[in-house]
Amino acid sequence: MKNKAFLEGIRDGIPIGLGYFAVSFSLGIVARNAGLNPVQGFIASFFNLASAGEYALFTSIGAVATYLEIALITLVINARYLLMSTALTQRFDPKTPLIHRFLIGFAVTDELFGITIARPGYINPSYNYGAYLIAIPLWSIGTSLGIIAGNFLPLRVVSALSVALYGMFIAIIVPPAKKNRVILISIIISFAASYACTVIPKIKELSAGTRTIILTVVISSIVALIKPISDQDTPSAGESTKENEATESVK
Questions:
Q1: Deepest in the core among 177, 224, 225, 235, taking most CB within 10 A?
Q2: Are the beta carbons of 106 and 82 closer than 8 angstroms?
Q3: Does residue 212 contact residue 69 with C-beta atoms inside 8 Å?
Q4: Three-state SS for 41?
Q5: How far apart are CA 34 and CA 36, in angstroms?
Q6: pLDDT tens column, 187-196
Q7: What pLDDT does 179 receive?
């Protein structure tokens, strides 16, 4: 059973890993512009595993931000993974050892969380390890290769590849913005506020990292207070438990 789950994880991790490789290659260009070498880029990607978080990390390094600013901006941007990890705790068998919980929580990303939560019953660590075996190395190697390529490619090509990452972010925000007016308005306000903070006296003197931290916390908090997500949109813990029990009884 464990071997089967492991192979299924590898199968599901291949398309995710290939997508990660393409995205992290563009991140490698940003990392190269920030002065990182391939080894540093590999380590950063291996321990971060977050496109938006790493982009903030690399741009903050390039902007010579302080350690505190880098830590805070990375924490704020990656905060959604805390919620995902909390959701996954409801899907573990109570007997699951702490080491498995820790390792699975370490590699929580949007895509890996999606394939994990979509499987019925309790989380099988072997499945996740199979997916991680493909996804994590391809993500980290892609960053390193992006840095290496950035050192050899002409400046115009490097500049063009740097823009590709912005295209990825646009591709991420456009689909949900079409479906949800609140998200659309939040995005527009974020763009406007971000620009305003570059021209408003005193505020524009703050570093880019500090401005990003402030805007992220303030805008997300206001939206959460004004238009919170309805409880009907998310399954309750009781419903999740019932689903698990039903699945186990079928087995």
A1: 177
A2: no
A3: no
A4: helix
A5: 6
A6: 899 889 988 9
A7: 85
